[in-house]
Amino acid sequence: MRKITILLLFVLTMTSCGLLESEHEKPIEMVAFGALSDEESELITASPKDSNVKIVSMNDEIKSVIDRNYDKKEVYSITFNHTETNTSGNLIVFIALDKKTVVGKSKQSLNKK
């Protein structure tokens, strides 16, 4: 009986550790914000959460600004609002579907096709 109790306690401990780890996953907006240079991050006047997050299909324009080794058909696009300048559109950061890996960024508005 004692072995079963210890085994059950061990399983519960290991399970709860996994749950706690997933709760502390960094928000995708913060992953994108961390990829910005100091100059780029200064353009964000409010919060990194003031952004649009969406999954977009790969096209030639997106492929031109991301890592050549990224071979998925979709990617997360995080567009930081109100970051446009006189010479470029809003900052866009592209993140892999794992929500952790930054695969590219752009300072220009990418046209929808």
Topology:
Blueprint: H1 2-23, H2 28-34, H3 38-41, E1 51-57, H4 60-63, E2 74-80, E3 91-95, E4 102-106
Antiparallel strand pairs: 1-2, 2-3, 3-4
Protein architecture, described:
It is a single chain. With 113 residues, the chain is an alpha+beta fold. Helices cover 33% and strands 21% of the residues. The chain contains four helices and four strands. The chain has helices at residues 2-23, 28-34, 38-41, 60-63; strands at residues 51-57, 74-80, 91-95, 102-106. The protein has a four-stranded antiparallel beta sheet, with helices on one face. The mean pLDDT is 85.
Short description:
The protein is α+β, with helices and mostly antiparallel strands and 113 residues long. The protein is 33% helix and 21% strand.
